[in-house]
User: Fold these one by one.
Assistant:
Number 1:
Amino acid sequence: MRPFFVDTLEQVLPRMNMTEQNTRGLAGVVAAETGLSFIDGAEGRLWYRGFDVHALAKHASYLESVYLLWYDALPAAIELSAFEGTLARQRALPPAVLDALRCLPADAAPMAALRTAVSALGQVDPEADDISHEADLRKAGRLVAQLPTIVATFDRFRRDLDLVDPDPELDHAANFLYMLSGTRPSETAARALDTSWLLYLEHGLNASTFTTRVVASTLADMHSAITAGISALKGPLHGGANEKAMEMLLEIGTAGSVPSFVDTALEQKQKIMGFGHRVYRTEDPRATHLRRMAEELSLEAGDSRWYDVSRRLEVEMFERKGLHCNVDFYCATVYYSLGLAIDLFTPLFAVGRTAGWAAHVMEQHMHNKLIRPRAEYTGELDRPWVPIDRR
Ligand code: CMC
């Protein structure tokens, strides 16, 4: 007689209401409801709260778009200025977080430093474990205000430079560039960074946003969710791609070297960073703006080298693989033209995306259902137990 606990996988699966079908990488799976953004991958369109990202990139600032995302309405002038003022007053870091950053090795990856500092902020936030909507909004505001300070502070510590206090008179992007370099940036530079943050702000259930929603769905707090989001963003298939794209452009060196670089990379089945997308089947609408900004910045600097290499690679990739570039590709050229260190590119993606992650945490907390999918089991069942002295 068969022992009662021995079952075949075929017998167990139907009882567990599981199918043997599995979607690799959850491609095409709808895993949450959101009112925050919508992507039309076939047409290459993106809306934040129903507003076309093209219109926002043309007319709005980053913080105006954050307000839109969090409050589901475009702010009136007085509301925007109150919102900007509240955030500007919260830019300084608590002493414990400054100490934590000071203790990190100078060769630590800035993305890892950011992850550590956001986690440390959660240790000292007076409302850390309050997940009411009001507290979530306040914590989201503090995080958006303080993340640029973390990036600038870590960078100055590692370069052994004195810290620069935030200037409440400067807007969000200009203040970051000022804290990083110690000099007031040009309007063009501040505007370019601000628009890049607007374009990075929100993008549906990408890997990092999904991560933050999973964490929030356990009713864990905002800082835990954002720390997890930063961790997910770090990888080269996601936010880490903007750094890898720039390293690749530097390796290619000249527009004339693009074809042979592509030959070798494709022959070796390497991914070309900054190309391809899980959702877009045509041009990523964010790339349209970053390409234009990259061109403008290179014309202004009188040096179009990196724009030319990027453009040639874009044409080559489309002709050979039918692949379009994504948001991270021209962002690399834009950030490089702004004189930013390459290992700050992904932290700056995180700076822009934090407000989007926070919006998802709030949405999840307001309509919570634990996110807990199942895995398709591919192992054996009921393997015979062997006592340790007989293995
Ligand atoms: N270079 C060369 N081939 C590529 C690339 C690329 N960048 N992207 C996709 N392909 C090919 C891939 O080799 C595969 O070909 P085949 O079917 O012959 O094996 C096919 O296209 C499908 O690729 P996939 O990796 O299975 O597609 P996915 O939807 O799982 O991956 C992706 C999407 C973004 C991870 C991928 O395109 C990729 O690795 N790109 C490079 C990294 C990158 O730029 N990441 C940023 C993503 S967008 C913004 C962000 O999240 O930060």
Note: The CA atoms of residues 289 and 347 lie 20 Å apart.
Number 2:
Amino acid sequence: MKLVALTGGIGSGKTTVAKIFELLGVPVYNADKSARYQMEHHPILKSLLIEHFGSQAYHVDGRLNSEYISGIVFNEPTQLTWLNQAVHPYVAIHIQEWLMHAKDLYGVLETALLKESMKLTNFYKIVHISSPESLRIKRVVIRDGQLQEDILKKLRFQQTEEELLELADFTILNDGSQSLILQIHNIHKSISNEILKKC
Ligand code: ADP
């Protein structure tokens, strides 16, 4: 199965667009959710994180203390690099397992960190969701109730629109001016036809 990256900054609409791909029958893998799952369930990784960040890295019920960890890594770039390097091997193995069992023409890997994900696996195509930063911030404030300054901190660690545009094979404009469903349908048709032609 070919793998298509679906990327965009926080609040650009990745989860929304991924749901539409799923409705079209395309399997979706969420790299951020997978990283979280590994951090909460893989005993070796859990021990590593506790050793590095302290026992506060987890709540008493075993859930990841995201607020605590975000407070560290989004204030200190070397800590974010450390975290990514610790978690990525576990996500990479899981992606390979997912790909081995899939039988579809292509699957979508949803990721906020495209360059990091490109180190884990190869992509057949890259789909980028573009949306103005001010609109993205407004959406995340409504979605998560996060403070604007916390969102801005996270944004600084993500790829810029210019970087993503350069890497992208397709760009979906999600600023409310164009139909999302139509744009996604056209991309789905184009990718499926190209793969079928090569078969
Ligand atoms: P991401 O996964 O990239 O962070 P989401 O898909 O969660 O972004 O979108 C952020 C918020 O904006 C969500 O609450 C979502 O429902 C909303 N949203 C996204 N795209 C649109 C749109 N075209 N129209 C209205 N709301 C949208």
Note: The chain has a mean pLDDT of 94.
Number 3:
Amino acid sequence: MSVAGKDIFDVDSLSRKEILQIFQTTKEFKEVLKRPIKKVPALRGKTVCTLFFEPSTRTRMSFEIAAKRLNADIVSFSASTSSLKKGESFKDTVKTLDAMGVDLYVIRHKEPGSPMMLKRYTDAIIVNAGDGFRAHPTQAILDGYTMWEKFGKLEGLNVVIVGDILHSRVARSNAKLLNKMGANVTFCGPKSMMPLGVENYGLEVSYDVHEAVKNVEVVMGLRMQLERQTGGFFSTLDEYNEFYGITPDIMDLAKNSAIFMHPGPMNRGVEVVSKVADSKGSKVEEQVTNGVATRMALLYLTLGGDNNGNS
Ligand code: CP
């Protein structure tokens, strides 16, 4: 099987072998990013368009930098200054962009399923950069890569994901990818922030963070997603921090080699304290660095970069 020509709606559509191929390619591009000239002509002549209908720093910038590092042309669609504001439909907007020769769209939207809807109007490749609380596959791939790089494999790794699971596309995509790769995943958080039917997800569920982190290699904090919450999930942010905030004491319960991860943006003092976020065991900045190399790998492999023969 090959990643070439594939839409990346979620990690479901990627086999174990394909995920390892993405990791290996990411590793090679990480080496390119250490060179004085951090560019290769692998996607010369290809056009990538970012369609972000929700705020983003990491995902949008890393896709844009990744495309530039591969010598692709990159254009950013801005919904607020586009003809959508004059009543043009989404379908006609996509057809207009297609007519300009876009090869691959990177889309983020608050509506779950929006990348699949986009696919109805275009033959270009679609990469999901986050659709509501459904999926964030490229975040899961870069997180998986960060663990693979640190521990050498994902099989048998113990990972606890702590926080607002209910509203988290990162938790859902990470759990799928990590399960597929043989890691043991625990979701931990207040009952009010667990999705209905979580017991059928094929992973452990815990409501006690002190128990859940015991002997794990990876503690992943999640952002408290206030913009998706309708209220009543916890009394106050201070109370949430008291019960579920990741502190040095909690990290001490994990394995000695344990790392802290967070997809960002972080709410310091809510889901994690600065002493952990800025500690030696924190991989938060490494995740961002890996985000560029991972997205280079994804653009390169989906757009069939091998065919250009000039990476
Ligand atoms: N992790 C993540 O998706 O961050 P951004 O919202 O900044 O893209």
Note: The chain has two domains: 11-135+289-310, 137-283.
Number 4:
Amino acid sequence: MAGGTDELGVRLKVYEGQPAAVSGVGRDPVNLPMIRHWCEATGDTNPAYEGPDAIAPPTMLQAWTMGGLSGHGGRTGAYDELMALLDEAGCTSVVATDCEQEYLKPLRPGDEVVFDTVIESVSERKRTKLGTGYFVTTRTDVRVGDDLAGTHRFRILKYAPSARPSAAKARRPRPVVNRDNVGFWEGVAEGRLLIQRCADCGTLRHPWLPGCNACGSLDWDTVESAGEGTVYSYVVMHHPPFPAFAPPYAVGLIELAEGVRMVSNVVGVPYDKVRIGLPVRVEFRRYEDEEGALTLPVFRSVDTLGGLGGLGGLDSLDGLGGLGGEV
Ligand code: ZN
């Protein structure tokens, strides 16, 4: 789709500057009950939003223009036409991407809000991870009488969803590594299973969190798990299918000897032989695919360790996939 003339893009550009809503009227005047609900929901205790001289939180700007279930008043056909053009072109999916607001004048209880919405811009065709499509930005000017109280820009991506990867090419999902849990994954990379420990009360925790659930302390260190545990609970996944994994497979909740629990694979045992109480030991397994290498802690049934007899023979089957309880 890249390159060449974009006939659809040219047709979409025509809508730039066209009104999407004209002379919309707020369903209710700015009012204290809505302000109070908003402040409670957001935990905003600013005294400016209370009492006889209260103003509305500026971030409520859009709330005063919302149409509720019955829809917006003053809506024109242009926006619907634009969306229909995109739908016809296969851009059937939509995601809101961002919102920008500008505040010019405080709104106060009793203010009657009117608004106009214009289709401010339609982007060039863009290729995104979600799919290829167009960003559509609308701008709503919110007024009280002739005074502009604020503007609200709302941007969506209307796109044709990318084709799903086939099972053969599907990559194993990557863990989401963030500032809170990076230490855990650094440990995994070194072949160590690290458990967070509260530096104040000593409570162990997993998954990794910024603070202690027991005492609220933000100070912590780690202890290295010996890697021994048992299956505390498990499920066998049959449906829905995920491209990277072939069902059925068992997902285990492992209780480590140290007391914390973590979700992982149970390997070395058929999915239908996983049982609550099954003794397991951690194993750091390396995966390779086109996205690169990935190391994950998995838990191997201890019954299968060090023996060719009994379940030990399943190790080789595990390597072929399907029996390993791969998640
Ligand atoms: Zn604590």
Note: The pocket of zinc ion is lined by residues 198, 200-201, 203, 212, 214-215, 217 (CB under 6 Å).
